[in-house]
Amino acid sequence: MFDFLIHGFDVALSPLNLGLALLGALLGTLFGALPGIGPINGIAILMPLAYTLGLPAESALILLAAIYTGAEYGGRMSSILLNVPGDAGAVMTTLDGHPLAKKGLAGPALGLSAVSSFVGATIAIIGLTLFAPLLAEVAVMFGPAEFFALMVFAFASMAVMMGKDPIKTAIGAVLGILIGTVGVDSSTGVLRYTFDLPELYDGIDFVVMIIGLFAISEILLMLENANRKDGNDGLPPLGRVFVSLKEVMACKWTMGRSGLIGFIIGILPGTGASVAGAVAYTTEKRLSDKDNSFGTGNMRGLAAPEAANNASAAGSFVPMLTLGIPGSGTTAVLLGALMLYNITPGPMMFSERPEVAGGLIASLYIGNIVLLALNLPLAGVFARVLTIPRWVLVPGIAILAFVGVFQLHSNLAAIYLMLIIGVFGYLLRKLGFSLAPVILGYVLGGLMEQNLRRALSISGGDLGILWQSGISLGLWIAALALLLLPWLLPKLWQAKTSKA
Amino acid sequence: MKLAADRLLGIVLIGLAAFVAVQAINLEVPFSYDPVGPKAFPLGLAILLAALASVLVVKPGTNEAWPGRQLGMKLLLVLATLLVYALLFTKLGFIITSLLAVTSLARIFGTSWGKALLTGVLMAVVSYFLFAHALGISLPSGYWLEPLL
Fold this sequence. Notes:
The structure holds 2 protein chains of 2 kinds. Helix content of chain A is 74%, strand content 1%. Chain A is an all-alpha fold. Chain A has one domain. Chain A has a two-stranded antiparallel ribbon. The longest helix of chain A has 49 residues, at 91-139. Chain B is flat, with a radius of gyration of 24 Å. By secondary structure, chain B is an all-alpha fold. Helices cover 68% and strands 0% of the residues of chain B. Chain B is built from 5 helices and no strands. Chain B has 2 domains: 5-58; 69-134. The longest helix of chain B has 24 residues, at 69-92. Classes of the chains: A mainly alpha, B mainly alpha. Chains A and B meet through helix 7, helix 8, helix 17, helix 18 and helix 19 of A and helix 1, helix 2, helix 3, helix 4 and helix 5 of B.
């Protein structure tokens, strides 16, 4: 059953793909370390590169996955050194990471977080190797009705788990799905929401959407903190550069537990690194904070979220590769990238395109080792990235965005659309929306409609088919339970305590 | 009572939902093999959106601070720069427009004219050679350059 992995290592160890994994790891770490740019922005900005190079699907995916995991490594830099999390997933890292840096232990803190990231990611990649083929075998039995129910479940899980405001998460997802309906309807040829603009007939292009939503809105958002000096005045000395073996060994169980937690949370669709980091941190605090030193620079408090972050990144590949449902905003972007190659990830991918599924998993093993090797000795170099001022960073992003969109379409309409989407993304972020649901909706919406219509064609329009099978009924019940739980639990809890 | 941004957003979204629904209903479908057709899905989404938006109107959340006057001006400047960049991109060519856009952005983001101009020149030239020669992307060279080449 591990044929796909052996085949995958063949693919991943080819000189081209090995080079791409290295390049991606390096670029990802650099972009992740850039102030204010998290993994998803990093991928959005660098994605056109993969197309420019004219890479085959598996190589493009290897490059993008390496950027993703690299950015998860890089994101810890600003959390630890500046107390500024690069994205939501790195918030927990600041809690003990920054106090450690203030104590003059920035070097060991960076080293420990690299080791924790490595351990967490390794646990999750092994989990992915074991679990994904099994899940794929179950998923082969999924028909359109089951897939539709699964997507409803994914959106429900996202609404509950992601962001502070479930209503806004849901609205974001609906808006994303609506954006996805623009263009010609594939089964009837009817034009929807194109307003007689020929540029919109093919729908809103994925790259234009991603770059507008993330890169352009980021530029606008950065303006608000333009006057904040990024690290120039506050970069603490690194101290000794290496973390000692003793310090690492003291955290070994923490890393193991947190890695496992991160993996499991990563699998759940819609829940990303932020939830994983928070759950791992609070669990570890409960289990091993004997002297109440969490939050004041405890090594374990740093190791827990870091291991969980990276584990959830790898875990989110499980639903993406086996079910075609991304586990996080970033994997949604990767999923969209795959669809540009006319590959729809799903249960058949392990049998039909083993070079893609296996190559990706094998490259995750390799990339992870590369990242550890890069990050331990080069922490000081990467930390310098934090001192890049915004007036250099922003024009650079602008050029990358313009070139990225222009080289794919060679027309200005795409660039105008990118700018419009950028303003839209900026407004959403200012209004307290997170962009991950929007992108998840945009990527999944088309599939959701296709599956719904296919299911109803089979049944001749009878809605009952949507919950006829055991699997789909189970998914509907799970989705309903997820939506009701946050509202029901406190009431049950109250009823219980008032009785006692 | 001050109109909360979320309330306004909710009302705008309800309007959007109505628009989406009307557009969907007015679609002319010549012939459809499947019983659902292209109308139902957007219609369902519009209903869902309207329902969610009404919750927002009734129970608005908290919002971040909106940019003040000064920041708003800068925001418009950045957008204007990007728009002009796009307008002139193919006409004047990559190097010239990038030089202008980078200089303008660097200036808006708070550096001196000298440094901004230097960044503009360096970034435009270096990225042109990186993209056009190393990566082989075809970038517009601009009408003014073509007779010279």
